[in-house]
Amino acid sequence: MTAIDQIPDLAPTAAGTAIPRARRMPRIPALQIIGAVMLVAVVLFSFGYPLLPAFDPYTQHLSLALTAPGVDAHHLLGTDSLGRDEASRLALAGRVTLGIVVAIVVVNSLLGMSIGIVSGYLGGKIDNLLMGLADVQLAMPVILVLIALAAAVGPSVWLMIGVLAATYWVGYARVARSVSLGLRERDFVLAPRIQGASGFWTVRRHIVPNVSVQMLILAVSDIGAVILLTSSFDFLGLGVQAPMPSWGLLISEGQKYVRQAPYLSILPGIVIFLVVAGLHLVSQRFTSESTPSRKRSPRTTQKKGARR
Amino acid sequence: MNDSPAETVLAVDDLQVHFSTRGSRGARRTIRAVDGVSFALRRGETLGLVGESGCGKSTLVRTIFGLNTPVSGSIEVLGHRLAGLSSRRRRAIQNRVQLVFQDPYSSLNPRLTAHDIVAEPLRIAGRYSRGTVASLLDDVGLGADALAKRPAQFSGGQRQRIGIARALALHPDVLVLDEPVSALDVSVQAQVINLLKDLQEKHSLSYLFIAHDLSVVRYLSDRVAVMQKGKLVEVGSKDQVFDAPEHPYTRSLLASIPVADPRRRADAPTQLQES
Asked: A183: helix, coil or strand?
């Protein structure tokens, strides 16, 4: 009786030797959960708060100007120098800043990916030309260019987006180039070429899917840097223009009242910190995930176990 | 070479492929990777091409598939000289020759399913149908359950079968087999080689079988060509090359085949090898 009962117990233990290894895989380190919570909190606030009836970023209540957070029940995060609701302005600034940043990153990654793939896949003179262009781009002082253009045509959001979109593709192009350079000589890319596929076919089916994963990883870790950059431009008055708020602009506006109302600079500072640090923590997971040796080994062990 | 009425499907004539490199002082140096190679492959025949790494086998293969441009010489497929054809006609002729890659791990796109991998040449040629793909996979001994799986879910031997199915998709006359079993386990090698033999009979294929494993070459080939430093140093029937090699390089290649039985070894083994 006992001997028979033990048999079903034995089988799972023997098969289960691989389980602790597989279980290790989905565990997400605590830091990344914290990062995700930080990100989600800011995004929820920026896009959720405007749905509430309290949302009113533009109406001025001059009698309530510079109310500290927590004093007035209608303005939980206080008001600015014109008596506008700080919580509403922060939320709107979040939408504005995140929208601008995502637009810049999307344009940059698509542009960089296209240039990099063309460069890496075609090689030769075109490669030299495009990568030379990339080097020139890197040597260009972006801030000076933006200041010069802003002086010439007047500062605006669109100018900032345009200048950043035209200059920040270099990082993407270099990664896309090196990935497609490596892929070009791989057998699975040679196979369709031998079988008569056009260059466009080969790139679309075999190069783009493999490169775009890398681009996504790069983009996620780049968003934080671009938030900091656009915020600095807004702060300098080169980007978003008042009365539209952005995080950088809010800090800049609050700077004048830093003694009477330090929260005006501190609150947007905290929000920027939360997003940038949160993104950094989350993107670390992406970069370690993309390392093939780490990604592949637990998967293959699982599959082998399943096939048996 | 024996006289045979069989049609020549692939003929390479005095092919020269050179690469120029620049030395440290800027002096140009020309490397003759393929240096005057000529051979003819007849329908239904297997020509084994052997030679050490770096002797120009891969360059020869790449040139046959148009990935390198020859300096001189010609490649003829079914009597058509490739160099003189319009690009459209050339494509049609070129597709009569297909390649099976050496490494089944890098020759299949890990993101695609077996169905999509085998379907790709058909889609390129505009001849895709789901039934064709299934019958191609069936031809190489893979069932319908293989269609939706990705390369990572297959063993090395199964992957190589997918690679063979992909090469067969456009009904070629010639398969160039670039060391098709050297990346596989010995037990799987035999299965794949037997599959290749069956397919050859079924579709009356000609094989250009490139290998450095001489025992596999001997089993599969009708004739054997030995390549050294870009030249074919010896071409002859299998028995002729293996039993009465003329060229010293062929003899040294043959002497390097490991023999399992120490008493049958040609050269006296040293103590170190014994232990």
From this structure: helix
